[in-house]
Design goal:
972 residues, alpha/beta, 33-stranded mixed beta sheet, 8 helices, 12% helix, membrane
């Protein structure tokens, strides 16, 4: 019966124990005489792979059974059961509670499953219970709190869950409590503080939360307190400084905060202090230097700041000092390793803000491992570095060291790891490096080192990894490189190496990764490459290697990554297809020929197949459809023909499909719309026909769509507007017709739009002016577009090139184009544009505007003075024509009326002068002297017309002209 209360008086516990026995009468009625039967029940419950139960039989004395201990001088009184480490499996039976005389049970390090039997709480004589390192499940039975004599309880490294039962606080004789490496949760019970005899409390690797309870101060005898790898928080409790017997304190990888307790300096017997991986702040307390017995100090991965204040002159026993991943600054203190008494063997200071020289570290003569990487140390690597003669690991990477690698480095005969990458080192690799016979890892990458790779490097026969990436080494790869029989990684990429790949490299038969890319290597691959049976990754791209591949490469069955791009290899691909484990095959820009072998599809885990820029011919193998994990397929710029095989529709993870620059035919398949991971689709420069399938609009992640230079027809499907992630749309050089769909406005991440050399018609959609990211080009040239240039194009403020040439666009150039301040190429030639070029566009060459007969103004010839030179829109022309018609009608009426009046006056004058010639001669005189002035004096509309003429208006000119003609007619 489970005890649920947190604590009970002893009498209540006794009553519950009695009730427990009543419920389990068969167990409680057990006596010392029943031990053999109980043990046989245990035997029947367990599987015994090693036969340790073979001697367990009723006929034999139980005290002679393997793993059984009996009380001396007594018969059948079993006091010990030890079956540790025999691979036993099965469930511990409840009957084990019948071993009433047992004092020690050890079933550790087996494969036991099921729960811990609560019946173990009946074993009142039990002192030691060891069930650790099994696969036990369930919770920790509270009944274990009934074991008053229990001294050692170790049940960790199981699959136990739930909380730590507070009832364990009743096991007042407990000295060791080990519950590490389970799945326990909740908080640390305060009741554990009642365990005054407790010496070891180990709760590592659970998911415990909360603070360390103050009641734990009652465990005054603690020697080991380990609660690492939980989720405990709060400050480190000050009472820990009162545990005078404490030898090991491990609070690593929790969420403790605040400063490091100065009181820890009072723990004179402390040998191990681990506070790594918390959120501790502040400085390192000086008091820690009082811990004269301390051997391990790990304060790494916190937020500790200030100077490095540790002195091994006081911490004479210190062997491990780990302060990596903090905020320490300043220089290395001179007294870190003062004198010859320092026993410091391992110093880890990486990932701080320390600077200056590392000269002070040369006093730490016992050092075996030194890691000061990821700091700001400067200066040269001291030539006296060989004072650290015992160094095995030296890590100085990610600093600002300069100068050359001193030849004295060759004196560190024990060195196994030399890591100097990402500094400012210059000069050559000293040949003395060849004396490092134990060297396994040599990392010099990302420096400025030069010279040749010394041949002596081949004497470092223990080398496993060599990385010289990103330096300036020149010359050839050492001919004796084959001496490095243990070499697994050779990284020489991005240098200036030349010459052939040495044939001896084939003798490095442990080689797994070979990177010789980005050099100037030449010649053919040696036949010995076929001996590199362990080779998995080989990258040779960006060299001048040539010739057909050796047939021996087909023997390399472990290849996973091959990148031979940008070389001059020729011949067949078949030698590279011996492995069925290829994940990457990149051979772009070589001269490989023949067909694409169907054997490529044997590597079902292929993710990248790049064969572009070769001389491959024939059809695309349908077998490529078996490469269902393919994310990139690049077959561009070859001589491939035929259709796109439908089997490629099974490659549903394709992100890049590049088939451009071939002679492929047929239609663009609609199943491309099912490739929902597609980010790049380039089918340009082929001979595809038919419509653009609307289904492409389903490729919602498409960034680039290029179908240019084909024979595609029909209209641009508006479904392309659903490609809202599209950056590049290129449909140039096809036979597309119809209008440009306004739905392209939805592609608001477009920065390149090319629709030229088609038969598109209708107006330019104003919506194109609302593509905010359009930057590289908007090219609508060589179509049949008409209407005006939309003023909205002025909204394309990032646009660098605009080409609307060779269309049927009319009207004026909109002034809004002056907003395109990033524009450096403009072509509006070959249209029907009219009017003046906006002054802000005059900096573009005349060719930008040629072929528009009614355009004028810089850079074209000047516009005529008359404003009539301006070509007016159709609506304005209609209004003006109507106005002229109305005015003309009015003028005609006025002229008719004037002529009638003039005729009437002339008749009157003629009649009055008909009796004498003098009057007639006088009229002629006036006429000669004043022209038509005689008629200006007549109060007629003509005189008014003469007055209007002086105003200079167009209407007055018309009236005056007509009146003069009338007067002339009258005189005649």
């Amino acid at each position: 019966m489970a005890i649920k209360q947190s604590s009970f008086p002893l009498r209540v516990l006794a009553d519950l124990s009695l009730l427990f026995c009543i419920l389990l009468a068969p167990v409680c009625s057990a006596t010392t005489a029943t031990a053999p039967a109980t043990l046989l029940q245990l035997k029947s419950s367990l599987t015994d792979p090693e036969g340790v139960f073979s001697g367990w039989s009723p006929e034999a004395d139980v005290c002679s059974w393997h793993g059984i201990t009996c009380q001396p001088g007594e018969v059948d009184i079993v006091t010990g059961l030890n079956l540790s480490g025999y691979g036993l499996s099965g469930v511990i039976p409840p009957a084990i509670g019948g071993l009433i005389s047992v004092e020690s049970i050890d079933l550790s390090s087996n494969s036991l499953t099921g729960p811990i039997p609560p019946e173990l709480g009946l074993l009142e004589n039990l002192r030691t219970l060891l069930l650790f390192s099994n696969s036990l499940t369930g919770t920790i039975p509270p009944e274990l709190g009934l074991l008053k004599n229990l001294e050692i309880l170790r049940i960790g490294d199981n699959r136990l869950h739930g909380e730590i039962p507070p009832h364990l606080g009743n096991c007042t004789e407990l000295e060791t409590l080990g519950l590490a490496y389970c799945q326990l949760n909740g908080s640390i019970p305060a009741e554990l503080g009642k365990l005054s005899h407790l010496q070891q409390l180990v709760l590592d690797n659970n998911t415990l939360i909360g603070n360390i309870p103050e009641q734990l101060a009652g465990c005054a005898s603690l020697r080991v307190l380990s609660v690492a790898d939980n989720m405990l928080q709060g400050n480190i409790p000050s009472f820990i400084g009162s545990f005078s017997d404490l030898q090991s304190l491990n609070l690593a990888n929790n969420q403790f905060s605040g400063g490091i307790l100065a009181e820890i300096g009072n723990l004179s017997g402390l040998t191990y202090l681990n506070l790594l991986g918390n959120g501790l702040t502040g400085t390192i307390p000086e008091e820690l230097n009082q811990l004269s017995q301390l051997q391990v100090l790990d304060l790494s991965m916190n937020n500790i700041s200030g100077n490095l204040s540790i002195s091994t002159a006081q911490l004479k026993s210190l062997k491990y000092l780990v302060l990596s991943g903090n905020l320490l600054d300043g220089a290395i203190p001179e007294d870190l390793c003062a004198g010859d008494s320092s026993s410091l063997e391992n110093l880890f200071l990486s990932g701080n803000n320390l600077g200056g020289s590392i000269e002070a570290l040369l006093n730490c003569g016992a050092l075996r491992s030194l890691d000061v990487s990821n700091n700001s140390f400067t200066g040269a690597i001291p030539p006296s570095i060989d004072r650290l003669s015992g160094l095995v690991n030296l890590a100085l990477h990610n600093n600002s060291f300069t100068g050359s690698l001193p030849p004295q480095i060759g004196n560190l005969s024990n060195l196994e790891i030399l890591s100097l990458f990402h500094n400012g080192l210059t000069g050559k690799i000293p040949p003395e490096i060849g004396r490092l016979q134990k060297l396994k890892l040599l990392f010099l990458y990302e420096n400025q080192m030069a010279g040749t790779i010394p041949d002596e490097l081949a004497d470092c026969t223990s080398l496993e990894e060599v990385d010289f990436f990103g330096n300036h080494f020149h010359g050839s790869i050492p001919e004796r490189i084959g001496n490095l029989k243990n070499l697994a990684v050779l990284q020489l990429r991005q240098n200036d190496l030349s010459g052939p790949i040495p044939a001896s490299l084939g003798e490095c038969q442990s080689l797994q990764a070979l990177a010789l890319a980005d050099n100037r290597l030449s010649g053919a691959l040696p036949e010995t490459f076929g001996q590199l049976a362990e080779l998995s990754v080989v990258t040779l791209y960006n060299n001048s290697l040539e010739g057909p591949l050796p047939e021996s490469l087909f023997q390399l069955k472990n290849l996973t990554v091959i990148n031979f791009s940008h070389n001059r290899f020729s011949g067949s691909l078949v030698p590279l297809l011996g492995s069925s484990s290829l994940a990457v095959l990149a051979l772009t820009n070589n001269s490989f020929s023949g067909v694409i072998p169907a054997a490529v599809a044997r590597s079902r885990n292929m993710v990248r197949l790049q064969l572009g820029g070769n001389r491959l011919a024939g059809a695309i193998p349908a077998e490529l459809g078996n490469l269902t994990r393919l994310t990139m397929l690049d077959l561009s710029f070859n001589n491939l023909s035929g259709d796109i095989p439908a089997e490629l529709s099974r490659c549903t993870q394709l992100a890049h499909l590049k088939l451009d620059g071939n002679r492929l035919t047929g239609s663009v398949p609609s199943w491309l719309g099912e490739l929902r991971s597609l980010g790049e689709l380039d089918l340009s420069s082929n001979a595809f026909t038919g419509d653009i399938p609307a289904e492409i609009g389903n490729c919602s992640g498409l960034l680039k769509l290029s179908l240019s230079d084909n024979h595609l027809s029909g209209s641009i499907p508006p479904e392309i507007g659903r490609l809202t992630s599209l950056n590049v749309l290129n449909l140039n050089k096809n036979d597309l017709s119809g209008a440009i769909p306004a739905a392209l406005r939805q592609c608001d991440k477009l920065y390149e739009l090319r629709l030229s050399e088609n038969a598109l018609e209708g107006p330019i959609p104003p919506e194109l002016g609302k593509l905010p990211e359009l930057q590289v080009i908007l090219d609508l040239s060589r179509n049949k577009l008409s209407g005006e240039i939309p003023a909205s194009l002025g909204g394309l403020v990032k646009l660098e090139r605009l080409n609307l040439s060779s269309n049927r666009l009319d009207g004026q150039i909109p002034p809004s184009l002056l907003k395109l301040t990033s524009l450096h190429l403009l072509n509006l030639s070959g249209n029907l544009l009219a009017g003046a070029v906006p002054a802000g566009l005059s900096g573009f060459p005349a060719a930008s505007f040629e072929g528009n007969s009614e355009l004028c103004g810089a850079p074209l010839p000047r516009c005529a003075p008359s404003s009539s030179a301006r070509r007016l829109p159709g609506t304005e022309v209609a209004v003006i024509v109507a106005g002229i018609a109305v005015v003309s009608a009015a003028v005609c009426v006025a002229l008719l009326y004037t002529m009638l009046r003039v005729w009437s006056n002339w008749r009157a004058v003629s009649v009055s002068n008909s009796d004498g010639e003098e009057s007639a001669h006088g009229a002629g005189k006036w006429a000669a002297a004043a022209g038509d002035g005689k008629y200006w004096k007549v109060g007629s509309p003509v005189s008014a017309a003469g007055e209007k003429h002086s105003s200079g208006s167009e209407t007055s000119v018309l009236h005056a002209g007509k009146s003069t003609e009338a007067a002339g007619a009258a005189k005649s």
